[in-house]
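Ticket 4471: requesting a sanity check on a complex prediction with pyridoxal-5'-phosphate. Repro inputs:
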Amino acid sequence: MGVPDFDALANAGIQRLRAYDPGHDIVALRQRFPDAALLELGSNENPYGPSPRAREALLDCLPELHRYPDPLGTGLKQALARHHSLDASQVFLGNGSHELLMMLAQAFAGPGAGVVGSEFGFAVYAIAAQAAGAGYAKAPALPAVGAMPRGHDLAGLAAEVDESTRMVFVANPNNPTGTWFSTSALDEFLSRLRSDILVVVDEAYLEYVTDEALVSAISLLPRYPNLVVTRTFSKAYGLAGLRVGYACAQPELLRVLERVRESFNVNTPGLAACAAALADEEHLHSVARDNAGEREWLAAGLRERGLSVAPSQTNFLLIDFGREAAPIESALIHRGVVLRPMIGYGLPNCLRVTVGTRQENERLLRELDQVLA
Ligand SMILES: *Cc1c(COP(=O)(O)O)cnc(C)c1O
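Returned structure tokens:
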């Protein structure tokens, strides 16, 4: 019996889709470089780990693992609502914010609808739009200043909007560029946009921001009912393995999203650990402070070596080597140093590096010196 052409059997949007590229096979690399010899700087994980309180809360729920999680996630939603001065009905939980981005497109975009994002925008936005059957248009990023930075151009995004547009995805700060725009620039963008276009502001790195011109777009929710802000516990909270993210928006909007939510999308350890992590503000602040210091130190070290580094408000840096980065990347892999290739983003001369601890950053620079020599 012949194997059917499954590609042809797939929904139209999915036929054209390429799966998200998670970078290297990290498990295989860990086997190749045992005993912590692998320097994992490819996925923007938090090298300091989560709050110890999150670990305790996680262990406390082990006796309950035969039970389903709270399908409403009420405890975590209430904690988040208090944290952001919102009502719990304005908070929606996801299995990571990746799931929320997919669900938003599934619920609010579809065949015939247009979704707008930016050049060098996060790869998941195009996947979410196409998986929903919608079109995805990319607005050009800001022109390069020197080699960098090339952040979102909000005027360009507005110009890309047409009759069919139903959603706009922006990350602030953005991955993979690390660039950002001010809250007042976002405010102006929103004030000019049709109010029936959903604007999703992905704030996966917001906790790392040190520029006072950028505060969370959650502050704009009362004025823009079409705004959705997504956040995650994967980055600054150091809980990427638990897969918990959340969206803040109007209750009426979230009630629509609720229709496509898998009933137990956030697991029991995730609910418990994230509520505990949220309560430990001291840990979060120390992570953000250490990251900001290391971000500056590492950027200076890279620039001393003649490399271009985009300004960043995140826990990663985009490095432009001024030549094809693939040979540098593979030489680093041979030495057990994992960075993220950027060729899929149309940035073949660039690699993205997660800001590590001082010890990790020192090793990175040492290995880079060897490779570039
Ligand atoms: C890491 C990241 C996410 C978060 O993903 P989770 O699914 O919450 O782990 C979302 N958006 C951007 C831009 C990211 O870099």
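Notes from triage: Residues 9-49+282-372 form a domain with the Aspartate Aminotransferase, domain 1 fold (CATH 3.90.1150.10). Leaving this open until the requester confirms.
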